[in-house]
Amino acid sequence: MTATLDPDAPVNTTEPTSAKKAKKAKKPRQRRATPAPRTPAGPPSQVESASMVLSSAFTMIGIVCLWMAVQLLFLGSVSQGRDQDLLYRELRTDLAGATAPLGPVVPVGDPVALLTIPEIDVEQVVVEGTASGDLLAGPGHRRDTPLPGQVGTSVVYGRGATYGGPFQDLADLRVGAEITVVDGQGTKKFHVIGVRRAGDPLPQPAADGAARLTLVSSYGTGRLGPISPQSVVYVDAETKKGFPAPSGRPAAVPDSEKAMASDPGALPLLALCLALLLALTLGVVAARQRWSTALVWVIASPLAIALSWMSTDVVMRLLPNLI
Amino acid sequence: MSGALKRLLVLLVLAGSLVVPAMAATSTASASTAPASAAPTEVGRRASDEGEFSETKSFAREFVNYDGSKTTLNNPLTGQPYKMTVDVDHTRNLRGRERVQVSWKGAQQSAGRAPDPYGGNGLNQEYPVVVLQCRGWGDKVTPETCWTTAVAQRSQVGVSQSAAVWREDEYAADADKEINSGMDPMPTSEECPGVDDTGLLATHITPFVAANGTTYDACDINHMPPEAAADSSFPPAEIAAFSDENGAGSVQFEVRSDVENESLGCNQDTKCSIVVVPISGISCDQASTPTATQLTAVEKNCRKTGQFAPGSSNILGAPDAAVAPSLWWSASNWRNRFVVPITFGAPPNVCDILDDRAPTGFYGSELLSQAALQWAPAYCLNKRRFKFQMNTMADQAGFDLMTNGGGPAALVSGEHQAGADPVGYAPTAVTGFAIGYIMDKPDNEGEYTQLKLNARLLAKLLTQSYAGSTFGAQHPGMGDNPWGLQDDPEFQKLNPGLPKVGNEAGAALLNLANSSDIIQQLTSYIATDKDAMDFIDGKPDPWGMKVNPSYKKFALPVSEWPLLDDFVPDGSTQCQLANPSVYFNNVAAPVTTLAKISSALIDGWPNTQTRCDTDISTTPPTYKLGRVDRQPYGYRFMLGVVSLGDAARYGLHTAALETTPKHYVAPTDRSLAAALRLSKQTERYGPFALDQTAVRRSRTAYPGTMVVYTAARLHNLDQDDADKVAQFIRVSTTEGQQPGSGNGELPGGFLPIRRTGVTAALWHSAQDVADAVEAQKAPAEPGGDPSDDPTDTNGDGSSGGDVTPPGDVPSADDPSADATPSATPSTAPEATPMPATEEVSSGLAGGLLPLLILVGGIGCVAAVVARIAPYVRRRG
């Protein structure tokens, strides 16, 4: 009702298109930005409405990009921190109940070990699986390798910049640094034997019965290094005597669980999330016809934030897993 | 005298020196005659013959007369006191549900035979032989530690005084002659409603003392151990068995471990016994009067000698208590007991408990499961060996797992399609499958033990060509077929003396549902029989029986038997109306493991799913089809495919199969060896193929003979695993072929593989494969990186790229000692030239965040500019 009476009604008609193009219930602010009839009565000029459209479009682009950057760098750490809390609790219960997984096959997403690297201040619960989505919660254990601490070479991936960046300082580790792994079979202390980047030789073969642990993450160079992790770095650590490893591991992992791989399987989910966002936008437009702006604000903004958060999580799965 | 002896000795030595080289020269011939000279017994029966038991006892029943003199009642068959001998065929290292043969002679002929002698159903008999399982050895065995399922088997509660004959027992302690006896203190009538405190009715209670020390009052069903609950998971094993007209008899007695019966609690550490109590009647106390007619009622009852004619059957009547099995615990009967000490083998979970190492799983054929059960403790309890674990699965699935690296070795019994790597087959055990059966002769005449089958009868069963019931008879083209084996003239001719009314149980051969080398061999046996194949191709048998049209012209052999029929009968019962389903699939109802078939045969419980279950608590009532009831004792008729290992352990009867016309071969050591002689190895490291057409020409070879092989990759196998597989092959073909029931020994149902004799070729092939598996060097690839490490699949330049986990690369093909020192950090990094770490990077990963921030910033600025621009322009 208010909208039809409002002098700047044409704004209304432009907004759905801009919203449809981008997303998000950003209208309320837009609406507030132009509440008072600063210009005298009369329809806005052609130029004004064009600039309005342009401005809205740019605002949307800005919000989408900045929101994503903010979630990757800051909000993601919050959710990763919470995931870690829950995983730690679960692993603790499993260890106490002697039900912690021993391999060879562990359900994806289950906590498998606690990884502590005092030197770079890392204490993270390792989950099973290295797909991009698994690494949102913490470092992931590659499923075709033995569990950390077991005989053989165990590979653990971790994000280098986003979602808390558990492995962001991995490249700073020095030879000899201590890495402690606690899992269902006990506690193992590893010592770093080298940091590798592309082109460096692989370490010497392990002795019989030794357990290797290879931590994998990404790093960037230059001024933007911390936020542009484009290459993969490996840290090899070893302990003299590993726990026995059961046979029967999967022989290979899907492409989406390899280093710097993304998971195109998330596309349908993303489509669903975007559709929900679109529905929310249309809902806001419709709601504004009936209810006061404040009310629509109160109702729509939590939904918008939740949906945006969810969509960004899904988008993360489409991005390389080590960033 | 001494001269003659000396001459004899010299002669013997001379003869011996001539014979030995001759035997050595023809070692194969001598070995082949060795089993031939042995009596044709079940396969590997010797293995379970350990600890044979035999004992003879003399006893008699007597009445004390008024004047103190004694009247002795002798065995009416001999006129002498009873002289009874009990034999038990094996007693050591028994396992849960194993059946042992208990036989006796010298007892009195039983009378008033009950249709079902087990548990509480066997009480209404006279002069039976009660066989029980008790905890303890020797004198430690008391009636309180003996297991019975029913209250009436252990306690007499609220019996009128005239019937309380145990109070007249000459040998009973004074306490047991009280009106209420058996426990101190006796449970009151509040605890046990049946116990009479008023002194009117007599009660004797034999409480049950469980392994954990709990005492169960055993005065009614609420005071019995939990395993005695009605319809508990296992049917009663204790039996009041029947002695024939010569006073002899035998039963297959099933022993229970603490897995099946925790209260009884027999296991590796708890000694147990089989107790055989012949019921020869209560010996009665001094008479109160010299005149027989003036004796009190209870004195007369005590002196009764039975009301049924010897050998008769008893459907309804109650027997004379003095000669009934319900008083087996009374002093007169108990003092005549035979206590057979038995020991139990290691429980199935011994390795999980005593060895915390991670197991190495071998995957495959269930034929080996009984041997694996005995072998596993010999590995896990020996720290120098690995922890062996056998996981049963379909042969093909196990083989696939092995070829793609999921398991170090597969256990299969035939050749399978290998993957990229060559596979070696090491013969590990000689065993086979059999058609197990349980069939009772009509009129309670005992079990049928001479079953003969031919390929056409098996084809009829497998193709679901027996109608089973009126429902199956509606099937187009099968209206005139017999309902089951029982009324098939061909079967009747082969196996006379069996019931002649066909039913669903006779229409099915309980079979495996999944793919198996056993089905492959069974169907190739049928495929080489002309009559059977003619039948399947549509030619009626000489009696006019036709094949089920759904299976007409079905091509054999197959490795998985399909259920092809799709006939849904017109429903006449509520169940069929509510659940229209394919009738013959419900009759056949195949299962997934041989173990399920074996336990169905032990219990006499067909898997036929045609029983109508109704739940009337809902409106309208709900109906479902369920498994039919257990077959009653005396009317059992069932067949199933079993492994020879299971048949030996559970004492299942196995059918003889036709080879040449009119020749039927049962699975024996000899017939298995004869079949081995026909099998041929076509290539080195390959399996030995048994050609069924050759078997069909032999009169002695058993068609179900199968060799279980340990199949492993000959290269690209992790060296650790390769060593384990080689160790397993060597241990199982030497120590594991020692017949016996102990850890690591070969159980019954298997023909030992020996270095000499008919199995020599198998033995040598096994050693050959063990060496090849251990060496792991077959066709070498250039570049020297044929590592099996799954993550070592380099070179896929796909979007993701790949990590090469270091360390494992050369370890598989270069287990040289110099790797050990170089593995220490920061020393000699150039000891072994190592490949370089691959370049894995992603432009997207590097550019994403800066791009987002940049575009976001530009967007915000542009939005502000676009908003302000018109006003600026207007103002300007």
Automatic annotation (TrEMBL), chain A:
InterPro entries: Sortase, Sortase_dom-sf, Sortase_E
Keywords in alphabetical order: Hydrolase, Membrane, Transmembrane, Transmembrane helix
Region (Disordered): 1-47
Residue ranges with Basic residues bias: 20-32
Domain of life according to the entry: Bacteria
Transmembrane segments: 52-75, 266-288, 294-319
Protein name: Class E sortase
TrEMBL record, chain B:
Residues passing through the membrane, by range: 844-866
UniProt feature, compositional bias: Low complexity: 29-41, 792-839
Gene3D superfamilies given in the database record: Periplasmic binding protein-like II
Source organism, top-level taxon: Bacteria
Composition bias type Basic and acidic residues, residue spans: 43-54
Keyword field: Membrane, Signal, Transmembrane, Transmembrane helix
Region (Disordered): 29-54, 101-120, 771-841
Keyword hit for Transmembrane helix: yes
Signal peptide feature range: 1-24
Protein name per UniProt: Uncharacterized protein
